[in-house]
Write a structure and sequence with these properties.
This protein has 79 residues and is mainly α. It is built from 3 helices and no strands. The termini are far apart.
Length: 79
């Protein structure tokens, strides 16, 4: 889970100094890492490492990130 969480902002930062096409690629990698994190979060819940309440709290933040990232990527595609 730690690797996914670090990968999300790291890929945004890495792609930020590149052209639009490459930046979109790095944003998509970041988005993919968020889906990986969401999957691992659900596995943690199933293994009772986290409470249902904490899982929902974190998952809501992940979903919010995914919506923002998807919207941002869509806007870059229009340019």
């Amino acid at each position: 889970m730690n690797k996914c969480s670090v990968s999300m902002p790291s890929n945004i930062a890495e792609g930020s100094n590149r052209g639009n096409k490459h930046f979109q690629h790095y944003l998509n990698i970041s988005l993919g890492s968020s889906f990986e994190l969401q999957t691992q979060l659900l596995i943690a819940l199933q293994n009772e490492y986290l409470s249902k309440e904490k899982t929902e709290e974190i998952e809501n933040k992940i979903i919010e990130f995914q919506k923002m990232m998807t919207s941002f990527i869509s806007k870059l595609e229009l340019k």
